[in-house]
Amino acid sequence: MSRKVLKINRLKIYGMCGIVGLLYRKKNSEFGSIIIDMMQRLQHRGKDGAGVAIYGGLELSKDEYVLKVEVGEFNKRDVIEDILHKKCNIEEIRLIREGKDFVIFDFKIKVPDFKKLKSLLFEIQSLKDISVLSAGRFEMIKDVGTVSFVDSIYSISRKSGTHGIGHMRFSTESGVDRYHAHPFQSFIYPDVTVVHNGQITNYWKVRNVLEAKGHTFTTDNDTECIVHYIADKLLADYKLEEALESAVRRLDGPFSFIISTRNAIGVAKDKLGLRPALVSEDGEVFAVASEEVAIEPLGLNPEYLNPGEVRVFER
Amino acid sequence: MEIDCRDKTVREINRILKEAAISGEKQIILKNAGAKHFLCAGLQNPVNVTVEGSAGYFVATMIDGARVIVEKNAGWFAGDNMTAGYLEVKGNAGDGAGQGTYGGTIVVRGNAGARTGEIMKNGTVIIGGNSEFMTGLYMMGGKMIILGNLSDMAGESIVRGEIYVKGDIKSLGQNAKISKLNKSDKMWLKRTLEEHNFKSTIKKFRKIVPEKPRFYYAPSEEG
């Protein structure tokens, strides 16, 4: 057996992260508490970080977007404000979290379209000591620590929404910090996020091709290549289901991942079925999780995904 | 307080344990443990539990602050995923002792099976005897002390953490290398062995550490 095959086989043993996804046909005022409960039930799968992407909970008009930005010090907010003032209307600025050497702000802005937002966020991203954590018409919250800890800081369980995804991280080789926690967003296409359990063993091959197309990676986490890959396909007019099927063919290694877009949730499982994923639905609610214990309170019957299977649920 | 485990399911035993711990009980003895699996799982209070006899698989899994003593042997995955606390196995432990621990201390007075401390993140695992195949597999943090010998492929795919070994090392795994102890290593080792009543000198010890911090995902691996 070659060295490379041996390595891949070893990697198959691990990847304990927990993933969940939840979609309601109508807005649910208890969405945050339901997804947090699902996540807490999978806390044993990883305690290095926790995060959610929640859609449909923000009260935004047609051309409003939220930029979540981390800066090294409080007064760097002015630098971002200057840039934004020149190119768009700032509707609201909210202080989200202040730490010893960082501050996180939400900027609610008005721009005509995602293309404009994209150029703005890349401009901000290029500044020293400033990181765009998320941008779009949804809310992404992620940080280091357990589900309870992250919820206690960001009050996720008080949020409403229509659909979203959640993650409990068990890190392997990349850093344990806010940037490497899941979900990951791609700025290639509007409002695409991913949570992932497993390893992408041809990560560099996938990344090199995407970078050659001009897509920007901000971390060295293998999950980031999944969300860019899917976003790249959506940009090329693939349907979400087709994009997921393409990812299953292209990505190597053991994985299950959940993608969320503005109107749908999709789940994919690797060709050999080496990471767990189950789905459950009753017409009004769709849930996906790593383990059955996460969906038990919803009272739905679980259906385990087959190797290489993908599922998409739309609102 | 004593709990007679005979004729009780593990779920019942753990429920009684948790309720007693929450109500402030400080010392609990599990009588007739009968090597049942999952004993003391998820105990979050600073309670002392003594398991009379042997424990089965996953004893003290996911504990966060409890102190558990197993008077005989433990099955696979003793102390799996623990966050804080203490687990002591007075006899031998099966495979995967200390798997995925985030903190706390695990002491096995006898020998341990294969893959001891696999994917552990933090905390300390001490094995009084030998430890078998692939000890420290894909270890990602924390420290292990092995007073006996290590079997084949020790430290396989280790990316962070340290394995202190007194006895022989049959073979090293990928990404593992042997390093000498520095002054602070020696001080920590001496203090830790004394703290846990191991009468051993530190003279013969060396440690296994990772060759590279990013083994699978370094650009050169797949680029």
Give the overall pLDDT of chain B as a whole number: 95
Q: What oligomeric state do these chains adopt?
A: heterodimer
Total number of domains of chain A: 2
SSE order of chain A in H/E notation? Answer: HEHEEHEEHEEHEEEHHHEEEEEE
Give a short account of the largest sheet of chain A. 7 strands, antiparallel
Question: How much β-strand is present in the residues of chain B?
Answer: 15-25%
* Major sheet: arrangement of strands of chain A: 7-2-8-1-14-13-15
- Structural class designation of chain B: alpha/beta
Structure write-up:
The complex is a heterodimer of chains A (315) and B (223). With 315 residues, chain A is an alpha+beta fold. Chain A folds into two domains: 16-58 and 140-314, Aminohydrolase, N-terminal nucleophile (Ntn) domain (Glutamine Phosphoribosylpyrophosphate, subunit 1, domain 1), CATH 3.60.20.10; 60-136, ACT domain (Alpha-Beta Plaits, 2-Layer Sandwich), CATH 3.30.70. In chain A, 27% of the residues lie in helices and 33% in strands. Chain A has helices spanning 3-11, 31-40, 76-87, 114-125, 147-154, 203-212, 223-235, 240-250, and strands spanning 18-28, 49-55, 64-71, 89-98, 103-110, 130-136, 138-144, 161-169, 184-186, 192-198, 255-260, 264-269, 278-281, 285-289, 303-304, 310-314. Chain A has a seven-stranded antiparallel β-sheet, with helices on one face. In chain A, a hairpin with a 4-residue loop joins strand 4 and strand 5 (103-110). In chain A, helix 6 crosses helix 7 and helix 7 crosses helix 8 (240-250). The longest helix of chain A has 13 residues, at 223-235. Chain A is globular, with a radius of gyration of 19 Å. Chain B is of the alpha/beta class and 223 residues long. Chain B has two domains: 1-69; 92-213, no CATH class. In chain B, 13% of the residues lie in helices and 25% in strands. Chain B has helices at residues 10-22, 183-195, 219-222, and strands spanning 2-4, 27-31, 48-51, 64-70, 84-89, 105-108, 124-127, 140-146, 160-165, 176-179, 206-210. Chain B has an eleven-stranded mixed β-sheet with strand order 1-2-3-4-5-6-7-8-9-11-10, with helices on one face. In chain B, strand 1, helix 1 and strand 2 (27-31) form a beta-alpha-beta unit. The longest helix of chain B has 13 residues, at 10-22. In chain B, 52% of the residues are buried. The mean pLDDT of chain B is 95. The chains are: A alpha+beta (315), B alpha/beta (223). At the A-B interface, helix 1 and helix 6 of A face helix 3 of B.
